[in-house]
Structures are given as structure tokens and as C-alpha cells.
Amino acid sequence: MTKSTQYIVNRQDPKIEAYRLGLLDDTQEFISGQIERGDAPPDYQIADLSPSEQAAIAAGQAGVGAYQPYLNEGSATIGMGSDAMAAGIASLEGTGAMYDPESYQNFMNPYEDQVIQNALADIQRQGDLAQQGVRSQAVAAGAFGGSRGQLAESEQARNTMQQQANTAAQMRAAGFQNAQQAAMNAFESGMGRQQQLGQLTGQMAAGLGSLGIQQAGLGEMGTSLNTQDINNLMTTGALDRGVDQAGLDALRLTNLQAYTQPYQQLGFLSDIYSGTPTGSSTLTAASAPQVSPFQTTLGLGIGTLAAASGAQQQGLF
Q1: Domain that includes residue 167, residue range
Q2: Does the residue 107 lie in any domain?
Q3: Whether 220 contacts 71, CB under 8 Å
Q4: Which among 80, 81, 87, 299 has most CB atoms closer than 10 A?
Q5: In this structure, are 31 and 75 located in the same domain?
Q6: Mean per-residue pLDDT for 154-166?
Q7: Are 282 and 235 in the same domain?
Q8: How many CA atoms lie within 13 A of 129 on its CB side?
Q9: Are 282 and 207 contained in the same domain?
Q10: Contact 128/120 with Cβ under 8 angstroms?
């Protein structure tokens, strides 16, 4: 008994199939070539520090401890001010001391005795002249040598001595008062100058202290200004580096697009080929049952006998 089997095969147009097979070959060749050449997607790149950023780093490193000389100089100046203040305080010592009354002796006129003696001699000469006048009057009156004359001479001598004593006392008192006043003036003037020196020294010390603080402040100001410069350089440098990084990123994107473009093109073709409609065909195959060798021999024998019988009937032999 004969059996038949039907196969349904869906196939695209042979031309499209040929294109697809060609596409597969091209894709395999392309990928193999990339593998052999060692092609790979572009690497990421990091932009280097910009010149401004490098300058900022250098400035920051150079600025470390740059303030120290100013601090040292300011500290030294403040130390000088402290020493000056101590000297000013020391100079004020003794300015409150009491006046020494015996100090007038240093201001006595060394020529005072000579001046007094000269004044006494002048008075004595005047007294002698007056004594002569008394004697002349006594002679004229005829009383020379008498008690009245002696009394008049004694009175004149006493007056002369009294005048000498008064004059000497006045001159010595005046000399003492002048010396005392000069000593007091000198004492007060000296104390005043010493106090003024102490005040001036204190003011100078305060000025030195202020100067020292200002000198130290220069270091702080320099550091602050240097920090501002560094910040400005870092800001502008970051902008420059950002531009460079954007350029590197754009270059990588461009290279990546160039690297992936063949894949996109191959994929595009694959999508087109995949969208092509397919055709269908039906194949029918018939098959007979398998006969054993014995059956085949037996059939051949029967057929031969039948053919021989027919031939005899037809008079063929």
C-alpha cells in the first residue's frame, strides 16, 4: 500500500535569502576583522589640569609658611616695644621722691662770701668816713676827746657794724633762698623730665607694639590675598579644564559613533531583510511498503509462470 507525506516549507524570495546570507557573511567578516585588528570602543579621557589650576597649586605650595617672616618680624618689634615699656616704667621710678632740703648747697654761689666781704668793706669805708666826720665835728665843737665825742664815735661805729651785719644777713639769706629755689626748680625740672621721658618711652613702646601687630598683619593679609588669587585661578582653571573635558567627551562620542556606525548599518539592513514577506510551497512525496526478499522472489516466479502460460496460448512456443 502506498503512503504519501506532505511537507509545507515557508521560504523567502531566493534573492532575499541570498542577500541575507551575504549580510551574514559581511557581518562575520567585519567582526573577524575587528577582532584581528584589536579594534575596541574609544576609551574615556580625563582632561589634564589647566595652566591656571597648575599655577594655583604652585601658588598654594609657595604660599605655605610665607607669612612666617612677617610674624617673626612683628614678634621682634613687639618684643622691642615690651622692652621699651619696661624701660619707661623703670624711668618713672623715683619721680615721686621728696625734695631733699640739703640739696641747696650744690646751688650756693661759690663767690657769695667774696661778694659779702666786698659789701662789708664798702660799708666799713663808709663808716670810717662817717667816723671822721664825727671827729671833725667834735674838734670844731671843742669836744674832741670828751665823753660826748667818744659817745658819738661809738654810736657811729655801732651803726656801721649793724649795717654790716644786716647787709651780710640779707645777702646770705638771699643767697640761701636763691640756692633753695634753684635746687627746688632743678629737682622739679629733673623729675618732670624723667616723667616725660617715661611717658615718651611708653608712647614709643605702644607705637612699637602697634607696628609689630601691623607687621604681623601683613603676613595675614598676604596669605589672604594669595588665597584669593588661588581661588580665582582655580575658578578660571576649572572653566578651562571643563572646556577641554567637553572637547574630549565630544571626541569620544564622535569616535564611538564612528565605531558603532557599521553595526547600525548592518542592523538596518537586517531589519529591512527581516521585514520582507515570505512565500510558501507544498511538497508531496509517495512511498510504498517495504517487501521482503522472499516475497519478491515469489512474485517474480509467479510472474514468470504467468508470462510463459500466456506465451504458449499465443503460440509463441
Answers
A1: 51-251
A2: yes
A3: no
A4: 81
A5: no
A6: 80
A7: no
A8: 6
A9: no
A10: no
Average confidence (pLDDT) over 228-249: 90
Which of 114, 156, 126 is closest to 138 using CA atoms?
Answer: 156
Phi, psi of 86 (to 5 degrees): -65, -40
More confident call, 271 vs 3: 271
Whether 66 shows a pLDDT value over 70: the answer reads yes
Residues 155 and 16 in one domain: no
**Domain closes at, from 251, 266, 287:** 251
Furthest-apart CA atoms within the chain: distance in Å = 258
Return the minimum-mean-pLDDT range out of 46-50, 146-150, 242-246.
146-150
- pLDDT score of 316 more than 50: no
**pLDDT greater than 70 at residue 303:** no
Q: Domain end: 251, 267, 285, which one?
A: 251
Residue 139: per-residue pLDDT: 64
63 and 141 fall within a common domain = yes
| Count of CA atoms in the C-beta half-sphere (13 A) of 79 | 6
User: What region does 284 belong to: left with phi over 0, alpha with psi -120 to 50, or beta?
Assistant: beta
Relative orientation angle of helices 112-141 and 147-274, to the nearest 10 degrees: 160
What is the number of structural domains in the chain?
Answer: 2
Residue, of 151 and 54, whose pLDDT is higher: 54
pLDDT at residue 301 greater than cutoff 60: no
Provide the mean pLDDT of the chain: 74
Q: Are residues 23 and 118 in the same domain?
A: no
b/e map 164-193, b = 16+ CB within 10 Å: beeebeebeeebeeebbebbeeeeeeebee
Query: Does pLDDT of 87 surpass 80?
Result: no
Same-domain status, 9 and 93? no
Amino acid sitting at position 286: A
